[in-house]
Specification:
Blueprint lengths: L2 H18 L4 H8 L8 H16 L6 H21 L3 H15 L11 H4 L20 H9 L6 H11 L8 H5 L10
């Protein structure tokens, strides 16, 4: 990696570290303008924004999580105010943290819109219920009987599936129909 690229990555990491320590933008810019770093104001601003864009571009944290993160920071400020006996400031910080977390708000019990927009699907084996005319069972049975490429066992199953022959539960087990045609004695 080229030396200038290594230097650039080191600088934006330093900026991220200062930003994480709650340093202000002006503090970070002024630090970059010191003789230690030697940047001009324009370059310092560019590096500041480059660092924020680089480290926070893929931030997929939800808004509710951010509310809790900031509320926690405000609570920390309240504890610092308590240590300094500044009770009014501490009270305001605690109230702000509670407000940020939604304390005291009525929770909405809403049905999500995607639940209301789902299509209703109804499964049926009765064609008349969906507007298709009922087929003649005799004609259907004759058609199945005239199919030369299926065995008698398959004919019975197709007729059962078509609703021509009544289906009984466990009939295959009782009549020994579960064996293949060539396996029967």
């Amino acid at each position: 990696m080229p030396a200038n690229m290594v230097r650039y990555l080191e600088i934006i990491e330093i900026i991220r570290a200062m930003y994480s320590k709650y340093e202000t933008k002006s503090f970070i810019i002024n630090t970059l303008m010191t003789p230690v770093y030697g940047f001009c104001r324009r370059d310092s601003n560019r590096l500041y924004y480059d660092s924020l864009n680089f480290f926070f571009a893929d931030n997929d944290v939800k808004q509710k999580a951010w509310q809790n993160i900031y509320a926690e920071h405000i609570e920390n400020l309240a504890y610092y105010a308590l240590e300094r006996d500044e009770l009014d400031i501490a009270r305001r910080c605690f109230m702000d943290a509670a407000t940020m977390r939604g304390v005291g708000k009525d929770e909405k019990n809403e049905i999500p819109a995607e639940m209301l927009n789902r299509p209703v699907i109804i499964y049926t084996i009765d064609p008349e219920k969906v507007g298709i005319p009922q087929a003649s069972r005799r004609e259907l049975a004759q058609f199945i009987d005239n199919l030369p490429e299926i065995s008698e066992r398959e004919r019975v199953r197709v007729k059962r599936d078509a609703g021509i022959i009544e289906t009984t539960l466990f009939e295959d087990i009782i009549t020994n129909d579960s064996k293949p045609d060539d396996a029967k004695d």
